[in-house]
Write a structure and sequence with these properties.
The structure holds 2 protein chains of 2 kinds. Chain A is α/β, with parallel strands linked by helices. Chain A has helices at 32-49, 71-78, 83-105, 122-128, 156-163, 166-175, 181-186, 199-210, 215-225, 230-244, 247-258, and strands at 3-5, 9-14, 17-22, 54-59, 64-66, 110-115, 118-120, 132-136, 140-142, 178-180, 192-194. In chain A, helix 1 (32-49) runs parallel beside helix 3 and helix 3 runs antiparallel to helix 10 (230-244). The chains are: A alpha/beta, B mainly alpha.
Chain lengths: 267, 80
C-alpha cells in the first residue's frame, strides 16, 4: 500500500521518499485508532522500502508533533476493569506499539523525524526511533510520565540512553521537565534546529541529499551504528506493567483526565 | 543590564504580538491564562517563545503556579 489516508495518519511515496503525516487533533495522541493505523504502516513499510531511500515522519497538527499516549482512552478503558485484565490490555497495547516502533527503528532506509511544538511522551518516543531528528525552533521535548506514577512505555528510556549521556536521560526522566529545541540540539538529540514552520522543508532537503548515496551502504552503516536495545525494551514493558497496578497511577490518570484546569500539560 | 521592568515589558509585547491581543489590555498582575485565553499547550508555546527571545532555559517546574506576567518576568530575570 503506497498510499493511505486514515483518521489518525496518512502516508505516500514520492521520488523515493515516504512521508508519514500525523493528522489527528488535538495533538496526535496515540490510542487504539492511531495504533491500528501505525500497524498498517509498519506492515506496508517493508514493501515501500524497496522503492524508497528515506522516510519522513511529521505532523500537520498545529499544536505539535505528538503529545504521546491517549491518556483519556487509557483511563476510560482501564479504570473500571479488574486490575489483571487492565494490565493485560496495557501489555498487549505496549507489545503492539513496540513491534511498530522496532520496525521503523530497523527499517532499511534512513528515517527522519521532523518535529515541531509538543513532542511529549510517546510522541518523543516515536521521534527517537528515527535515525535523525530535525526540530522546529518551537519544538519542546518531555517525558512527563513520572507525573502519572509511570515510566515512558514506548521504548523511551532505552532509546534515549542509546543516543545520549545518562545524565541527560536522568534529567529528562526524573524531573519531568521539558527541553526546548536549542537545548535538545546542544545535548545532541536533534541534528538541526530550523526556523518556525520550516521543519518539513528542511527534512525534504535532507531526504534529497540522502538519495545521492548508495543505498546498500547507507543501510549497512545504519545497521552498524544503530542497534536496537531489545532486552531493555522488554524490561521496560515489564516495569511499566508492574507500575501500572499502583494506586498512584489511577489517581494520576484520573487527575489528568478529569481536570478542568487550564494547565494539565504543565508540571 | 536588563531590568526586571524591561523584561516585563518585553514579555507583554511578545505576548500581545503573538496572541494578537492589544498591548494595552495586558496588565502585569493579571492572570495571563485568562487575559490571553490560552490553555496549557499554548502556555508551553509562550514559554518556548520567551526562552528563545531571552536566550534562557526555564525549567517548566519553576513556573508551577505562576499565572501573572510580573512573577513570570521575575523568574526569567533570575536567569538572565
Amino acid at each position: 500500500m503506497d498510499q493511505f489516508r486514515g483518521n489518525a495518519l496518512s502516508w505516500e511515496i514520492s521520488a523515493g521518499v515516504i512521508e508519514l503525516a500525523l493528522h489527528r487533533e488535538p495533538c496526535n495522541e496515540i490510542g487504539s485508532l492511531a495504533l491500528e493505523e501505525l500497524e498498517k504502516f509498519a506492515d506496508a513499510l517493508d514493501n515501500m522500502a524497496r522503492q524508497a531511500h528515506a522516510l519522513i515522519i511529521h505532523s500537520t497538527v498545529k499544536a505539535g508533533f505528538c503529545a504521546g499516549a491517549d491518556l483519556r482512552e487509557l483511563y476510560h478503558r482501564s479504570h473500571e476493569m479488574e486490575k489483571a485484565r487492565a494490565v493485560a490490555g496495557v501489555r498487549d497495547f505496549l507489545e503492539r506499539i513496540h513491534r511498530v516502533l522496532n520496525t521503523i527503528d530497523a527499517a532499511p532506509l534512513t528515517t527522519i523525524a521532523a518535529v515541531h511544538g509538543v513532542t511529549f511522551g510517546g510522541g518523543f518516543e516515536l521521534a527517537l526511533v528515527c535515525d535523525l531528528i530535525i526540530a522546529d525552533k518551537m519544538a519542546r521535548f518531555c517525558f512527563p510520565e513520572l507525573r502519572l506514577g509511570l515510566i515512558p512505555g514506548f521504548g523511551g528510556i532505552p532509546r534515549l540512553k542509546r543516543d545520549l549521556g545518562n545524565g541527560v536521560v536522568r534529567d529528562l526522566l526524573l524531573t519531568g521537565r521539558s527541553f526546548n529545541a536549542t537545548r535538545a540540539h546542544a545535548v545532541g538529540l536533534v541534528s538541526q534546529v530550523v526556523g518556525e514552520g520550516e521543519v518539513l522543508r528542511a527534512a525534504r532537503a535532507m531526504a534529497l541529499q540522502l538519495g545521492k548515496f548508495d543505498r546498500r551502504t547507507a543501510i549497512a552503516a545504519k545497521k552498524f551504528i544503530k542497534a536496537i536495545p531489545h532486552h531493555e525494551l522488554k524490561q521496560e514493558i515489564d516495569l511499566f506493567c508492574r507500575l501500572f497496578v499502583e494506586p498512584a497511577v489511577e489517581a494520576g490518570l484520573r487527575k489528568f483526565v478529569e481536570s478542568t484546569e487550564l494547565q494539565p500539560y504543565l508540571p | 543590564m536588563t531590568t526586571e521592568e524591561q523584561t516585563l515589558n518585553e514579555i507583554l509585547n511578545l505576548a500581545a504580538q503573538h496572541f494578537k491581543v492589544p498591548r494595552e489590555k495586558l496588565k502585569p498582575d493579571e492572570d495571563f491564562f485568562k487575559t490571553l485565553n490560552i490553555d496549557s499547550l499554548q502556555a508551553l508555546d509562550l514559554l518556548t517563545r520567551l526562552e528563545n527571545h531571552f536566550r534562557v532555559e526555564m525549567p517548566d517546574y519553576e513556573l508551577q503556579g505562576v499565572t501573572d506576567f510580573r512573577t513570570l518576568a521575575s523568574r526569567i530575570q533570575a536567569r538572565l
